[in-house]
Design brief:
Number of helices: 17
Largest sheet: none
Helix content: over 70%
Number of strands: 0
Order of helices and strands: HHHHHHHHHHHHHHHHH
Length: 443
């Protein structure tokens, strides 16, 4: 192993560490949310599963759209262009606000069609208010992520970590008080969880904007931010780098969201078990994403310097780190599944079904780790146009038919749904790797 590769491991881990801490905090919060909701009632857990899987599509599309800013900021940061960075950040805030509002309009149409999506009738009174609260949280979460990508692109991953962790603490405390009615608050069940999540998203949005406005790290970018005017050139630039990433994440999460609708047709118990498996799987996804985000910054810095050899070297160094994380995650799922999943529910039918899904959950971890690595590496090069059709092909053309056939035609039910994720994830992983190697070739 060369000294350069060793030093790159250190840099990526240093950048990824705060992102990872924030993601672990988010994972802990997600676990706490689902544990509190699941302990409240199986119906609340199933309702949360349906809404969260639908909103994962919308939220990750918005987050993906903000991610187009990272390679642009990373390249500018490598060249010391602070004024241009501030101007681009302001344009990104405007463009992403418009994108978030359009996404909210689409989800508003979905809300009007909830009774036509085949979900158990007894869940709809729980689903509706929770859905509206999730809808309201899209815009503040989007704006938080715009400024978070500025932090990441300037190799500042610590500030977002502390803001996310603070928001997580606020969310857990709010859940405890509002779900169960503690401290004089009314017992609100799933609606209380939705209110708590919305308040925490507004809080982290305000906190990161205040950090940009008042911190020493934000000061060099203020002049460019204040003087900036939105131009057609900036809109085209941001859209060109952001829309493919947004649609890539949208297609991926849409596969999970549609899968949740199909699982809901199987009944409340399969839907609740599916939610437990999905939230358990985020333990791996969020940690892979942390290293992937750091990797994207390092590749973007190398791209700004025009160093293709460094782009490849940094990508492979990041992949080695993510593979090691993947092995640890898989071992955790294998040996700790009963303890992890048992925390979410005391319903023996739900827990028993969830435990049968460990094997397909572990099977798709390598595909997930690989596609996250090279999707982020490709994003760092700013050659993001292939990401759109790769995701559409992998998750829509290949993934959804595989899910339907394994669930219904092969009569494997929810087991077939989770098993089908390997098909789409490994397809995406192979294609992202291929196009990253092409983008960084010397020819």
């Amino acid at each position: 192993m060369t000294r350069t590769r060793k030093s790159e491991y250190s840099v990526i881990l240093t950048l990824a560490g705060p992102i990872l801490a924030g993601q672990i905090g988010s994972i802990a919060t997600g676990f706490a949310d689902n544990i509190m909701v699941g302990r409240y009632s199986t119906e609340a857990l199933a309702s949360a599963s349906f809404v969260n899987n639908l909103f994962n599509v919308a939220i990750l599309a918005c987050i993906g759209f903000t991610m187009g800013l990272t390679p642009l900021v990373g390249a500018l940061f490598a060249r010391g262009e602070t004024s241009r960075t501030g101007a681009l950040l302001r344009s990104a805030a405007v463009v992403n606000t418009v994108f978030a509002l359009l996404t909210m309009a689409v989800m508003g149409v979905v809300y009007l069609c909830l009774d036509r999506l085949g979900q158990p009738a007894e869940l709809l009174p729980l689903i509706r208010p929770y859905f509206l609260l999730a809808l309201a949280g899209i815009l503040p979460l989007t704006l938080f992520n715009v400024f978070e990508q500025w932090c990441f692109g300037t190799e500042n991953t610590v500030a977002p970590m502390w803001i996310i962790l603070g928001g997580n603490v606020l969310n857990v405390l709010g859940n405890w008080m509002l779900i169960y009615g503690v401290g004089g608050f009314p017992e609100m069940g799933l609606t209380g969880a939705g209110i708590s999540t919305f308040v925490s998203r507004v809080a982290i949005c305000v906190a990161i904007m205040w950090y940009f406005a008042s911190s020493r790290r934000g000061r060099p970018y203020h002049a460019g931010f204040r003087r900036a005017r939105l131009t057609g050139a900036d809109v085209r630039l941001l859209t060109a780098t952001s829309l493919p990433v947004a649609l890539q994440m949208c297609f991926e999460t849409a596969a999970f969201g549609i899968s949740a609708i199909w699982v809901g047709e199987l009944g409340t118990v399969p839907l609740a078990a599916y939610q437990i498996v999905v939230i358990t799987g985020t333990l791996g996804f969020c940690i892979y994403y942390s290293a992937g985000a750091a990797l994207s910054v390092r590749v973007a810095n190398a791209a700004g310097a025009g160093d293709r050899a460094a782009m490849r070297s940094r990508a492979w160094a990041g992949y080695h780190i993510i593979l090691a994380i993947m092995v640890l995650s898989s071992l955790t799922f294998i040996f700790g599944s009963r303890h992890i999943m048992g925390a979410f529910t005391d319903d023996p039918a739900v827990l028993g079904l969830a435990l049968t899904l460990i094997t397909p959950l572990v099977l798709y971890q390598l595909g997930d780790a690989t596609q996250i690595t090279f999707a982020n590496a490709l994003r760092g090069t700013a050659h993001v146009k292939p990401m759109l059709w790769i995701s559409f092909f992998s998750y829509v053309v290949i993934g959804l038919p595989s899910t339907y056939m394994l669930c219904f035609n092969a009569a494997l039910g929810v087991y077939g749904v989770v098993l089908s994720f390997s098909v789409s994830l490994f397809t995406a992983a192979a294609l992202f790797l291929t196009f990253f190697l092409r983008a960084t070739s010397r020819s």
